[in-house]
Amino acid sequence: MVTLRLARVLEDLGKTGKVILIDGAPEFLKRLACDHLLATSDAKSANDEIIQALVLKNSFKLVLPNDTSDRLPKVLVQKGWDEKLKKIDELYDDFNLYSKEYTLKSFTALFNRIKLLTDLDLNTNFLQPLARTPLTLIKPSETSLSAIDTDYGLAFYSPANEIDIQIIDGNHMSILENSNLPLAINQAF
To answer: For residue range 137-171, what is the model confidence (pLDDT) as tens digits?
Structure first.
């Protein structure tokens, strides 16, 4: 969303360039957050507490996959994001992969992004179509959403331009490590 908005602002200033999106687009990310992560197509029902619990449960699976303690439920009963973070700070000292400070900032960034997606109204003028900027979408061969346009709904943002779609073997995460990704990015230029 930021990329498309910034591209439009730069276009309005007379600048030219290209936009390359790696497995992302506003409609795709909103649907992914609502349908898959939150298991609801109604973003309004996804209140902050639901999103916070989702973020923390899934994040802890990644940062402490072998944790069998009873600490997380004590975090989840806290009201509000700041209180949950305080409880994590109080209960956890065993983050090995990253520092506690970095981990908590990552949790907050993820919460903010999912909240932004669930609140996003794709029918507003916040994201306007691009007049001249070419779009390239690099997406994985294994997609998370089957019932979505091939271009992830990007045709709206580029009505005057054809969208270049590159497909790389893998899924949302594994394409980042695929040696063909830098080649696809270079090819877009």
So the answer is: 999 998 766 667 888 888 888 877 778 999 999 88
Name the β-bridge partners of 91: none
Length of the chain: 189
For the chain, state the CA radius of gyration: 19
Query: CA–CA distance from 174 to each of 60, 89, 157 (Å)?
Result: 20, 31, 27
- d(C-alpha 64, C-alpha 119), whole Å: 29
Measured between alpha carbons, how far is 96 from 109 in angstroms, rounded to an integer?
A: 19
C-alpha distances in Å from residue 157, one per residue of 7, 8, 26, 126, 161: 10, 9, 10, 11, 9
Contacts of 74 (CB under 8 A, 6+ apart): 87, 91
Contact 51, 115 (CB under 8 A): yes
Q: Is 102 exposed, middle or buried (0-12, 13-18, 19+ CB in 10 A)?
A: exposed
